[in-house]
Amino acid sequence: MKKLFLAVCALVICSALYAQSGTTAGTEVSFHNFPWGTSQQEFTAKMGRPAHIDEYDGLQSLLYDNVIVSGYPVFLLAYFSRNGLEGGTYYFHTFSLDELMKCYTDVQKELLEKYGSTNLRDIIFRERAPYESSWNLPGGYVHLKVDTRKNDPVTLMFSSPALARKILGS
Fold first, then answer.
1. How do the domains of the chain map onto residue ranges?
2. Residue 92: partners with Cβ closer than 8 Å, 6 or more residues away
3. What are the backbone dihedrals phi and psi of residue 43, each rounded to the nearest 5 degrees, phi first?
């Protein structure tokens, strides 16, 4: 009777762990709730007129200010090719080292919950190195970083699979 009880308990625990592992990480990647390939016209129709437009290396970038992401104000850069939206980057506005680290930690926690464990993990004592986390997923590439030594902002970049191949060289 004890063996049967232990076997049932083990089966229930294993089933729960299996179900949980299947729901923790998502592979769908988009930028600012716009899917890859969204036209620049569709993007600007919803986001409004950008503060600045630039072109570099075959990509047109649109800059927006006063956008809120994860409760923090950001500069938003969206990158477009002739195929539509290819990626984007958020540059978080923070005003102190404490706020900078809190922002990084908050955003990283959200990303870990959404995408699962990261390719890069922060090491507690990283002399002269930025804090970084990245996810190379079938739906795109996500990279979060901050370099407190250089007073760089928290930066969160999203790339479509095509742009990720170009950036990562794979």
1. 2-168
2. 69, 72, 73, 74, 103, 107, 153, 154, 155, 156
3. -60, -50
Element (DSSP H or E) covering residue 52: strand 52-56
d(CA 89, CA 100): 17
pLDDT digits (tens, 9 = 90+) for 127-167: 445 688 999 999 999 999 998 778 889 999 999 999 998 88
CA distance 24 to 132: 20
CA 163 and chain centroid, separation = 14
d(CA 6, CA 28): 38
Residue-averaged pLDDT of the chain: 82
Start-to-end CA distance of the chain, whole Å, equals: 56
Q: CA 126, CA 54: separation in Å to the nearest integer?
A: 35
Which amino acid is present at 6? L
Nearest Cα residue to 146 out of 109, 91, 95, 96: 91
Contact 148, 100 (CB under 8 A): yes
- Residues constituting the chain: 170
What distance in Å separates the CA atoms of residue 165 and residue 86, rounded to the nearest whole number? 11
Residue with tokens 């996810």: 135
Query: The tokens 């570099």 sit on which residue?
Result: 56
